[in-house]
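Let's practice the habit of predicting before peeking. Look at the sequence and jot down your guess about where helices and strands might fall. Then scroll down.
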Amino acid sequence: MDSGKEKNRTGEPEPEEQIFGTFISHAKGFGFVEAEGFEEDFYIPAEDTMDAFYLDRVQIRPLASGGGKRREAAVVRILEHGIKQFVGTYEQSRNFGFVIPDNGKIGTDVFVPAERSKGAVTGAKVVVELTSYGDERHKPEGKVVEILGHINDPGVDIMSIVRGYELPVAFGEKVLNQAGRVPETVSEADRAGRMDLRDLQMVTIDGEDAKDLDDAVSLYQDEKGLYHLGVHIADVTNYVQENSALDWEALERGTSVYLVDRVIPMLPHRLSNGICSLNQGVDRLALSCLMTIDGKGEVTDYQIAETVICVNRRMSYTSVKKILEDHDEAQIREYEALVPMFQQMERLAAILRERRHKRGSIDFDFAESKILLDGEGHPVEIRPYERNVATRMIEDFMLAANETVAQHFYWMELPFVYRTHEKPDPDKMKQLATFVRNFGYRMKVTGEEIHPKELQKLLDKIADTKEEMMISRLTLRSMKQAKYTVECTGHFGLACRYYCHFTSPIRRYPDLQIHRIIKEQLRGRMTEERVRHYEEKLPEVAKHASKMERRAAEAERETDKLKKAEYMEDHIGEVYEGVISGITQWGLYVELPNTVEGLVHVSALPGDYFYYDEGTYEMVGKESGIVYKLGQRLAVQVKSADRRARTVDFMLPVQPDQG
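Done guessing? Here is the structure:
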């Protein structure tokens, strides 16, 4: 019988193997442990949790396999509690209160004695510090340490998510003082020794509301027809010195966070919107990747240099799209001097994209959702956020620069931070193949390997079909998350061997970190001692940055879910046509055209007893033979929406003769 333990070379289980991990609780009493050194989580039955609390660090003992697919284990020791505070909604009882956690994984409410409630009233959003974690007979106990406001006050709902994810909002005094000492203009001393590119025609192209402009682009074609592409990135490290308060704060934050109604920046605005932003018509310091590219899209030569630049125009994606796609005469007149460069950029971007496409790079072209809020923070519209010729163009140029820089430093054999993306899990690929078969598409999944080209072919086939958005999103979900590593193991999604993040040092710490390495190498200061310093430091930087990126993505996702649920509260009873995007034993997930996803609970499926067939990923009626498949179109009626749980529930529409 497999004990779930790692085997030694004789095939016998190791004696008393110690397995440690993080406990993830479930509202129904059982839990899972993400164990260190194991790919798969362990399932912890309710009777074997030892009352471990959400995110506790625990030691576990594998249990004899019960024949299920997932390995089981029992918690044998709780080593330390993972959370000290959480955010929730306060409910007042006669002489005490309790708090319902926002995070559904904390499967219990928490008792708060009246004298420790800070005067909170029912419906207040509060931060609670745990004073006892509870046991079989007692609920966990806590005290209110902060009242964020009432659940219905504008902005309190999102602030609750910000606090729940422990996202740092305000900058400390030391950091702000350092930012305050940063100059507002580039000095003569700063320009010294840099390549002067101020006469080179260049632009920034961003969204209308962007204020932290960290990349500019330039392009010209020579008499041989070769393209000379310059990607010029703000030299943030000139103002953020290693080990300064600013640097430690940026490292700690890891990334800027973009929520529905606010941006939580990695660096104070004085830098991100000031001296580090590549504003039009002013001198700025940059790190430039200057590439020579032939007609096939191959980078035949390049130079990475410290430069001083001056952006000619600050362009928006909308304006560039109007020039290139809509041939808008007013825009063409206004930017007349730049139009030839934009036309060349469009041609070069198409060449680069075609080259990437040939090697199998996967291009997800589905629309993200854009949630529009009114002045009170209520959602008034959810619409797809479209990519266009200009957004793709900038994307193509940034990819080229990121690849060029990564390849350069890989062959120099210097410590570096790469952006890597592992091959997907074969089981998930088989599930995806089953899903797309329902639409009549074929996908070749052989053995343990899948080439990115297979996924790319699938995305090509579904382009401009009704199901494009749905299949694209599910394909993305079936893949692993990209992360930061010190080993250059390649990027599956981009089908390339060398990749890094070089182009956004204002809002991502890994970019800032590699800018330092690049500059030390350019200046001949990469001594053995500095190499050792980076070898020691970078693994932790990469690990922490990946973790902060995940935290930011989760907070962004939760605010989206919250606002989508709030939006659907005004549409209860309305009927929509959606697509079945997920099937589990508890029901069907249906996604609407506006990207809102909701659940039709299995008990709400009329006319039969339905069960989930794991082998075919279908929901099957026992007597009727009715089958619900992934990707199937389904009319649904909005049954309820719960802002607190951030969920939407659907049911099948009531037919008039049934009503």
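How did you do? The chain is about 30% helix and 30% strand.
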